[in-house]
Amino acid sequence: MILRRVIAHVRKQEWTAVGVDFVIVVFGVFFGIQVANWNEARQDRARERVYLQRIASELEDSIRDIERSHKLAQSRQDMGRLLIAAASDEAPVRADPGKFVAAIYAGAWTYSPPIRSYAFDELRSAGNLDLIEDKSLLVAITGFYTEVAEKTQWNYIRELNQTEYMKRAAGILTYEQMALVDASKLAPEVSVAEALATRKRMLERPDFVEWLPNVAYRFDEIDTFRETLEQAHSVHKVVTAHLRVAGAE
User: Rounded to whole angstroms, what are the CA distances from 103 to 72, 108, 147?
Assistant: First the structure.
């Protein structure tokens, strides 16, 4: 319609009308582009919000697992120290026979927390990291997951330590004791006599006793979990703060 009007005005040499039509066309195109850009930006912000909500939720799940790993590492450090003490003195065994047997069973166990990064991995693999408009927020999220990936390369050391411990501990506990500890969730009821008999079998295994310092030394593991936990809390705080601001706009 506008094209027919322009042609008609040109034929009549109505240049003022032609100019008005031109302005109308330019304004219409400009306005259409602006509306399209605004709509695309609105959709991007909505997509960003969904991804950040998912990242926040996954961080909450990861934080719970990291906290559990940190507590377990501390508990197993205590188990290792108990076993070292019991190797030279039967008093700790008499004081808590169930705890001693449980320490034999699980002293070198390790638990590497699953750090969930599904939403971030999806963003990155799709090439959509630019959806996160706040670049300082993007740096914080990227930095956290990068550091987590770097730290996981050392998980194999803890896993090897656990495997070696289990090989050296084979035969110290009876099948019945292992079943009892497992069923009781590491709080078995064991008589002093039975625990002392277990200690005797332990002392007959010098290869096991010499491995105990590796079981008790958990400082690096505990520090790693503590640092990761602090970083996860920090990133979660930044993400949720961004979501609150975005929700208020």
Answer: 12, 8, 32
Element (H, E) at 208: helix 206-209
Angle CA(149)–CA(221)–CA(117) in degrees, nearest 5?
Answer: 25
Of the candidates 66, 32, 13, 6, the residue with the CA atom closest to the CA atom of residue 236: 66
Q: Confidence class of residue 156 from pLDDT cuts 50, 70 and 90?
A: confident
Residue in the block written with tokens 């079998």: 201
State the Cα–Cα distance between residues 144 and 182, nearest whole angstrom. 35
d(CA 71, CA 115): 16
194 near 227, Cβ under 8 Å?
no
Mean pLDDT in residue range 148-158: 87
pTM: 0.80
